[in-house]
């Protein structure tokens, strides 16, 4: 059997330590993976003078599956977001952000189980028409939504809901004000929803969605929305289950997928054995599911859940006093 090659991008700050935790655990699971390491972010900039070297792009193109730590894009003109660049380069149109409650985390709610599906390449993140007037007084950017893009992301959401036995899809918009872009999103989304009579659907204005998520998150199952709204909502949802350290992310295209920790690189704690690797471990669960390794994905999810619930070797953000390596060892033992 041909081994599955995985491109590993350790990333910046705490990235290398949490990604190494994931590699150890995936090796223990005996997934048959071959890991190919590649650089991006500040680490790549120091080595090659580029944030996203050609060799890294070639590795992704060849292997088609990536596990990635957090990357730092330098602040200032001339530096484009690496994550946005990757999504555009490989047409990763669907951003998949699940959040689920884990016993033992310091969160306000129990029994949260929500998936936010965000269109990943259009809207305000498309980078179109960004200008600043010569006098620095006026800035402008263009938001572009296409019917094809809306069809793709909303169909993805309903197909995923059907596959996973989900009951409801909420389509989030601002069509009452953004009548052209959000209006098109809502119109097409309703047309797609009508093709899935087995799945309940509703639409909700984005500001009300944020309020309802805080007041009564149990009413949500799958949320599908445009790029900017999805960026905000997915982080809000992470806050319902203990923060970004508990939230993984997947960027899915037709023939390529990137799985990642969604939090920042936290350079202030880099190299101190303090980081919580759960986000990238849950991203590894997503990767295993993507590769039709559901049994191994379930084993890993259970081991993470059990280690956090036990609480004897959890990291500080989870209320414990242990480090990355001790928490990793707790999961390895459970596997």
Automatic annotation (TrEMBL):
Keyword Mitochondrion in annotation: no
Pfam family, one: Iso_dh
Isopropylmalate dehydrogenase-like domain location: 5-331
Superkingdom of origin organism: Bacteria
Gene Ontology molecular-function annotations: isocitrate dehydrogenase (NAD+) activity
EC numbers for this chain: 1.1.1.41
This protein's UniProt keywords: Oxidoreductase
Family affiliation: Belongs to the isocitrate and isopropylmalate dehydrogenases family.
Full protein name: Isocitrate dehydrogenase
